[in-house]
Amino acid sequence: MDFKFKKYWRKTGLNPKWGNVLIEIVKQKKPKHFLEIGVFCGVTSRNICEFLNLVQNGDFTYTGVDLFGDDIGDDDEMKPSYIANQKFSNPLKHIYYNLYLKENLNSLKSVKKFLKKFDNKISLHKGDSNKVLKNLDIKKIDFAFIDGGHSYQTTFNDLKNIYENIKGKKGTIVCDDYQDVSYITDVKKAIDDYVKKESLSLRIIEGKFAVIDI
Ligand SMILES: C[S@@+](CC[C@H](N)C(=O)[O-])C[C@H]1O[C@@H](n2cnc3c(N)ncnc32)[C@H](O)[C@@H]1O
After folding, report:
1. Does residue 148 lie within any of the structural domains?
2. How many domains does the chain have?
3. What is the mean pLDDT of residues 167-179?
4. Probe ligand 1: pick from 17, 50, 63, 66, max atoms within 8 Å of CB?
5. What residues flank ligand 1, with Cβ below 6 Å?
6. For position 133, what pLDDT does the model report?
7. Which atom belonging to ligand 1 lies closest to the Cα atom of 14?
8. Which residues share a beta bridge with 173?
9. Is 11 among the domain residues?
10. Chain segment 89-119, per-residue pLDDT in tens
11. Å from CA of 3 to ligand 1 middle
12. Is residue 7 in a domain?
């Protein structure tokens, strides 16, 4: 199947090149219950929903967690600079989203609207993943994409909270920003430490995605 990752004229953490690499990993695993930590403006979410809708004939769920504008006051966290002021390099996007729609793309309301087509398949949760994941029922998740807070502690906690819920079952955890491409060493260190602690196997895809097969 020829599926191409689209940007949908929004802001995205993954450009189409990396989006297609992620889709390829998802294609190999064919999950039914997808969790994304760090939804941002919903572009990866939308691509994942479109893809799973096709390959699973509508039989899938998508769960997303994001601060959606909440400030957790942690100086260790690197926030995409875009979030603070919704700056676009394309002036037409500035006119359309900031002046005409007056819509903050990294808000729960905007992402809900953007994913409306999949209303009955998705659940979106606003808040700090360090806390939100503890209160969410994520036992059925069989694919998690971790791309939220990039500090050591948040990456480590996200891995721990997810792994403890899905261990013993077949599943996949993919973390973004492992090495080379983005040089976010806190993320790499947290993943390496967690994988070592739990004796998990780790595959690195193109120096960017860390894949843990469970
Ligand atoms: C790099 S962006 C995610 C990009 C998105 N996965 C994509 O592919 O477009 C990181 C997102 O994580 C969110 N975030 C940062 N720290 C977080 C935390 N502790 N809990 C939940 N979300 C967090 C930010 O609000 C931001 O939207």
Report:
1. yes
2. 1
3. 93
4. 66
5. 12-14, 36, 38, 40, 43-44, 65-67, 72, 77, 80, 83, 106, 128-130, 147-149, 154
6. 97
7. 8
8. 144, 212
9. no
10. 899 999 988 898 888 999 999 999 999 999 9
11. 24
12. no
